[in-house]
C-alpha cells in the first residue's frame, strides 16, 4: 500500500462524522488502518443532534472503500477504561499504534441548554478530560512502538480567544468550550515535553469555523442571528469559502507524516487569519 502513512495505525475519536470522519478516510487513503470511536448518542446540554451509530457505520464503509481496515466502536471519551478497551482491540488486530487524533468535541453554546451549568461541565468533561483520557488510553501502545509516534489534539480558534463577544453571549456552554479549548494547550505542552524522549510528538490544531453539523445547525444559527457580534467575530481575514473537514485533515496528515517529523509542542492555527483579528 502506497501513501505517506502506509501500514501505520491511527486512533481517532469523534470519528462518526465531521472532522473525525474526514481524518479517518484521509488517513486510510494515505495507507493507515484506523481505530475509531464516537459516543453515538446525545448529550442533554447539546442543542443540536449528535452523531449516531449509523453515522459511525458510514465511516466504516468509507474507510473500507479505500482498501484499509478499521475497528470502530461506540465509546465515550469521558470513560477512560472504555477507550482503553477499544484501543487494545484495535492494536491486537493491527499490531501497532502510531497516531492519536484527539478530535471528539461538542459545542454547547447555543440553545436554552447553554444556560444550564451542565453545559459547562459537559464541555470540560468531553474536550479537556476526554482529551487527557484519550491520550492516556493510547499511551501504552504508543510507548511500545519503537518508531515513536504523533498525537494531534483538536483545539479551536477558541483556544486563543473566547467564544463570548459581549454580555449577552455569555453562557455556561460558551465558557466551557473556551476553557476546554484553552486547557488542551496545557495538556499538549505537558505531553510534548514529557514524551519527547520517546520520540512521540504532540501538537494542537486550532481550526476556525468548519462546515460540520457542530457548527451548521439551527441552535447556533439562532444564536448568531440574535448576536451579530458573534458572527462577525468568526469572520476570517482571508476571503475564502468556509473551511471543510478535509482542509483540517490536510493539516493532520502533515503533522503526523514525514513532513512534520521535526514539529512538536506547536499550537497551529488553521483559521484563515481568524485569530489575528
From TrEMBL:
Keyword entries, A-Z: NAD, Oxidoreductase
Molecular-function GO terms, alphabetical: oxidoreductase activity
rRNA-binding as UniProt keyword: no
Family in the record: Belongs to the short-chain dehydrogenases/reductases (SDR) family.
Organism: Mycolicibacterium duvalii
Gene3D superfamilies to which the protein is assigned, alphabetical: NAD(P)-binding Rossmann-like Domain
NCBIfam families according to UniProt: PRK12826.1-3 (NF009467), SDR_subfam_1 (TIGR03971)
Coiled coil start-end: none
Top-rank lineage group of the source organism: Bacteria
Protein name: 3-ketoacyl-ACP reductase
Keyword Zinc: no
PANTHER family xrefs: DEHYDROGENASES, SHORT CHAIN, ESTRADIOL 17-BETA-DEHYDROGENASE 8-RELATED
Pfam families per the UniProt record, alphabetical: adh_short_C2
